[in-house]
Design brief:
The complex is a heterodimer of chains A (332) and B (225).
Chain A (H helix, E strand, L loop, with lengths): L2 E4 L3 E4 L6 E6 L2 E4 L4 E4 L3 H18 L6 E6 L2 E5 L2 E2 L2 E8 L3 H6 L6 E11 L8 E2 L1 H6 L5 H23 L3 E8 L1 E3 L5 E3 L8 E6 L9 E3 L3 H4 L5 H16 L10 E9 L6 H12 L12 E7 L6 H10 L5 E8 L6
Antiparallel strand pairs in A: 1-2, 2-3, 3-7, 4-5, 6-7, 8-13, 9-10, 9-12, 10-11, 12-15, 13-14, 15-16, 17-18, 17-19
Helix pairs in contact in A: 1-6
Chain B lengths: L1 E6 L6 H11 L3 E6 L6 H4 L2 E4 L21 H9 L3 E5 L1 H8 L6 E3 L7 E9 L15 E8 L3 E3 L2 H9 L3 E5 L10 E5 L5 E4 L18 H13 L1
Parallel strand pairs in B: 1-2, 1-3, 3-4, 4-11
Antiparallel strand pairs in B: 5-8, 6-7, 6-9, 9-10, 10-11
The chains are: A alpha+beta (332), B alpha/beta (225).
C-alpha cells in the first residue's frame, strides 16, 4: 500500500479510497517540534503494543475509535477518517508548558480536568486555540466541539482510572479526532507515552512527593531509559487489563439543554419577549424558551442520553437537545 | 359494556367519565390505578384516558404518564385492537406514547382556552363517531393550554389518506394543523380528542349533550361486534 502521510513517529498507508488505512509505528523519537530527534530501536514496537492495548480497552467500553485490529506487531489497521486539524490536550495534573504559562508548580492536581486546543499547523508552530477561535476558523461547529469535549472527558476518565490501577497517574495527554463518512466523531492517532505523561506514584511514605516519570519526558529532559520505562508501562497495562474492566463506570454529571425547534411556534418565548418589553427592556428582540436539566449518572454508557431524550425528555417533533459533561476527576 | 378509566396523579376528569358511563349510559365503569399492570383484555371493553394535568404537565403535557406502569397494559390492549378513548390530557398522553401520531404544542395564543367550540365531523365511520352525520356541526367544550395539534405536511397527507382526521374545529381555535381537534389511529380503535364529550352529555348542561352520541357510538359499535 502506498504511503499516504509520514509524520515524526508514524507512517500512514492509505490508497485514498479504502475505508481502512494502516498505521505503522516508527522507532524515531522527537521533541521540541523535531528540534531534538533520534531513533530508539524497539520504541515503535512497544508504542504500537501500548496503543493497541488502550484502544482495545476503549473499544470494549464502546468508545468510537479508529482502531480496528493489529496487522503486525508494529502496524495497526484503522478506520480511514477525515482528520480534524486540532490537537485536544487534557490535563489532570500540571506538567509541561502549562506550568510556565500559568506559573503553576509541576505535579499540581487540578480541581477538574483542563481541556485545551491547539491548531495543527507547523508554519504557525501549532498555536493554542480558544474555543471562539475554533468556531471562527470554522474548524468545528459548536455542536461538534461540544461532542469532542464530552468524548475527551470520557476517554480521560477511563484511562485515568485504568492507569490508576497500576499506581500510575495520567498527568495529561494529547488526543486527535476525525470524522467518518457519516460525520460521526472517532478518536484517532495513537495512545502511547509519546503523547501522554504518565508518572509512577511513589509508595515511599518518607518522600511522598517523589515520583517517577515514565513517558517521553525521559527523552525531552534527557533522563534516559526511554525504552525500559515504556516497557514497564506496557507490562503494567497487560497486568491491569487482563481482568475485564466491567466495574469501571463513568459517573458524570451533565447539563442537558432542550431547545424548541427552529421555525416552530414558541408561544412561551413570545410571551416572555412581550413581557420584557412591557417592563421597558425594549432591547429584547426575541426569547426562545428551552429547558436546562442537570443529570447525575452512575455510568454514562453509550447512547444513554440520546435514548433517554428520545424516549422521555424531548419531543422529537418539536424539540432538539445538546449536552455537556461537567468536568470532574473523581477519586484518583 | 365494561369501561376502564385510568387515574394518573393529576387526572381530574375521571369522576365525570365514571358518572357518564354509570348514570347516563347505564354501563359498568372500573377505575384503574396507574401503578398497576392489569390484564385489560380480560377486564374491559373500552379504555378511557381522561383529561386533567397528569404529573402536573411537568416536562410536557402527557410526557411523564407514558412511563407509568399501566402503559404496558395500555400498549397490549391497543395491540389487541381494544377501543381506547383519550380525552384532552388523555390525547396528549396517547401522542407522547406514540399510540397516536403528531404532537400537541402550546396554543398559538399562549393562553389557556376554556370555551364551547363548534366542531365538524370529518369521519363518522369510526367506533367513536358512528352516530354523527358526516360534516355535521356539533358543539363541545374545550379547556386546554396545549391543544395545538401539530404534524408535518407529509404526516398530514398520511392522516388524510387513511381517514384518520375525525373532528376539526370550525374556526382556528389554537393553531392546530388543518384545525384538527380529533384523530384516530390507522386501525380506528384509538381516538384522541381535545374537546370534552363527558362535559356535554346531558341536556341540563349549558354546553348541551352532543357529546353523548360519542359514548353511544362506542356502545353501538360494541353491540354490533
Amino acid at each position: 500500500m502506498m504511503t499516504y502521510k509520514e509524520g515524526k513517529a508514524k507512517k500512514l498507508y492509505w490508497n485514498g479510497e479504502s475505508e481502512t488505512a494502516q498505521m505503522e509505528f516508527k522507532d524515531a523519537i522527537t521533541a521540541f517540534n523535531g528540534q531534538k530527534q533520534e531513533d530508539i530501536k524497539g520504541k515503535g514496537l512497544i508504542n504500537s503494543s501500548i496503543s493497541a492495548k488502550l484502544f482495545n480497552f476503549l473499544n470494549s467500553k464502546k468508545i468510537k475509535t479508529h482502531y480496528l485490529k493489529q496487522v503486525s506487531s508494529q502496524v495497526a489497521e484503522v478506520k480511514a477518517l477525515q482528520m480534524i486539524p486540532i490537537e485536544v490536550i487534557i490535563r489532570n495534573f500540571a506538567a509541561g508548558s502549562v506550568c510556565e504559562r500559568l506559573g503553576i508548580e509541576e505535579g499540581h492536581k487540578f480541581s477538574r480536568p483542563i481541556i485545551q486546543f491547539h491548531l495543527k499547523n507547523d508554519n504557525l508552530n501549532d498555536p493554542l486555540l480558544c474555543e471562539s477561535e475554533i468556531l471562527e476558523l470554522k474548524v468545528l461547529s459548536n455542536s461538534d466541539l461540544k461532542k469532542i469535549k464530552n468524548q475527551t472527558l470520557i476517554i480521560n476518565w477511563l484511562l485515568l482510572h485504568v492507569f490508576s490501577q497500576a499506581a500510575i497517574d495520567l498527568i495529561d495527554m494529547k488526543l486527535e479526532f476525525g470524522f467518518d463518512t457519516n460525520h460521526e466523531i472517532y478518536l484517532a492517532d495513537e495512545l502511547s507515552p509519546d503523547n501522554m505523561r504518565l508518572w509512577l506514584r511513589n509508595t515511599d511514605s518518607q518522600n511522598p512527593d517523589n515520583f517517577k516519570k515514565l513517558d517521553k519526558d525521559r527523552y525531552r529532559q534527557g533522563l534516559g531509559g526511554v525504552l525500559e520505562n515504556y516497557e514497564f508501562i506496557s507490562d503494567k497495562l497487560s497486568e491491569v487489563l487482563i481482568s475485564p474492566q466491567d466495574n469501571l463506570k463513568t459517573p458524570v454529571e451533565i447539563n442537558l439543554f432542550i431547545y424548541p425547534q427552529a421555525g416552530l411556534l414558541d408561544p412561551s418565548g413570545r410571551t416572555l419577549t412581550s413581557s420584557s418589553k412591557q417592563l421597558g427592556f425594549n432591547e429584547v428582540e426575541n426569547i426562545k424558551f428551552g429547558k436546562c436539566l442537570t443529570l447525575k449518572l452512575s455510568d454514562l454508557r453509550v447512547n444513554l442520553v440520546e435514548d433517554l431524550c428520545e424516549r422521555l425528555l424531548i419531543s422529537p417533533a418539536s424539540e432538539s437537545f445538546e449536552y455537556e459533561i461537567i468536568p470532574s476527576l473523581g477519586a484518583v | 359494556m365494561r369501561f376502564g378509566i385510568i387515574s394518573f396523579p393529576g387526572s381530574n376528569c375521571e369522576q365525570d367519565c365514571i358518572y357518564i358511563i354509570e348514570e347516563v349510559l347505564n354501563q359498568k365503569a372500573l377505575l384503574l390505578d396507574y401503578r398497576t399492570i392489569p390484564e385489560l383484555n380480560n377486564l374491559i371493553d373500552c379504555l378511557i384516558i381522561p383529561g386533567g394535568f397528569s404529573y402536573g404537565d411537568y416536562l410536557r403535557a402527557g410526557a411523564i404518564a407514558k412511563a407509568a406502569p399501566i402503559m404496558k397494559s395500555i400498549r397490549e390492549f391497543a395491540e389487541n385492537k381494544g377501543l381506547i378513548l383519550g380525552i384532552c390530557n388523555g390525547f396528549q398522553i396517547l401522542t407522547e406514547a406514540g399510540l397516536l401520531p403528531g404532537t400537541l404544542l402550546s396554543n398559538k395564543a399562549a393562553r389557556f382556552i376554556c370555551q364551547d367550540v363548534k366542531l365538524k365531523v370529518i369521519n363518522n365511520k369510526t367506533p367513536f363517531t358512528n352516530l354523527y352525520f358526516e360534516q355535521e356541526i356539533i358543539t363541545m367544550p374545550i379547556a386546554h393550554a396545549m391543544g395545538n395539534f401539530t404534524v408535518s405536511e407529509s404526516e398530514l397527507e398520511i392522516l388524510k389518506a387513511n381517514q384518520q382526521i375525525v373532528l376539526e374545529y370550525e374556526n382556528d381555535i389554537n393553531g392546530s394543523t388543518s384545525q384538527i381537534a380529533a384523530i384516530c389511529n390507522k386501525d380506528k380503535n384509538i381516538l384522541g380528542l381535545m374537546p370534552h364529550p363527558e362535559r356535554c352529555s346531558e341536556k341540563v348542561l349549558p354546553s348541551g349533550n352532543q357529546g353523548l352520541q360519542l359514548f353511544q357510538s362506542i356502545l353501538k359499535s360494541f353491540v354490533n361486534v
